[in-house]
Amino acid sequence: RAVRLAGGRSRCEGRVELEQEGTWGTVCDDGWDIPDAHVVCRQLRCGRAVRAPGGAAFGRGHGPILRDEVGCEGHERHLWECPAAPEHDCSHKEDAGVVCSEHQEWRLSGGRDGCAGRVEVFFRGTWSTVCNSTWYELEATVLCRTLGCGNALQRPSFGHTLPGKMVYLCGSLQPSLAHCRWAFNKSAPCYQSWAAGVICNGTGS
């Protein structure tokens, strides 16, 4: 009886899908809330729930709707342990989703378009900057490709004005910065650093 998240930007965000007897199905958003989402995040080792969106926020799923009126208290080890209604009156436009604290997403701000500017990362419910102490061409290129912006041309520096700081060190061309080595709010690597930026050779909206 496995659980996974689908349709999100990382394995820690998406539509909740459960496996029952070899078939994957979804969860209805009736009564879906943060304690329910906490159980999913912990089960996937994705930290805690930051949001518990309904209304098929990550697209409509397929297959049976396996749970409705889920009523977790938040301490359960598995979503199957939580009480739920035996019958449902839902369609896939009510599929439940979750965003966990270990989900990371990125944006570039202050540049000419979405493919240039200061690197900002959404992590544990807040936006942070990235320290440029290990921000090399490899890390910048990983981010450009993640955003669909091609390759890195330049790496300008900015000031840190957001509450958190992230550090990335990739070592090889990874599918996203979340697959690289990373640390959050470690003061040593960020000492006297600037906020990393990048100008990619693609153009974005």
UniProtKB/TrEMBL annotation:
TM segment ranges: none
For this entry, list what GO says about its biological process: zymogen activation
Which Gene Ontology molecular function entries are recorded, alphabetically? serine-type endopeptidase activity
Q: Which GO terms describe its cellular component?
A: extracellular space; plasma membrane
**Keyword Ion transport part of the UniProt annotation:** no
InterPro entries under this entry? SRCR (IPR001190), SRCR-like_dom_sf (IPR036772)
Give yes or no: UniProt keyword Metal-binding: no
Q: Which domain of life is it from?
A: Eukaryota
Task: List, for all copies, the residue spans of the domain called SRCR.
Answer: 3-101, 106-201
Q: Which cysteine-cysteine pairs are annotated as disulfide bonds in the entry?
A: C72-C82, C170-C180
Q: One matching Pfam family, short form?
A: SRCR
Which keywords describe this protein according to UniProt? Disulfide bond
- Name used for this protein in its record: CD6 protein
- The organism named in the record is Rhipidura dahli
Mind giving the lineage of the organism this protein is from?
Eukaryota, Metazoa, Chordata, Craniata, Vertebrata
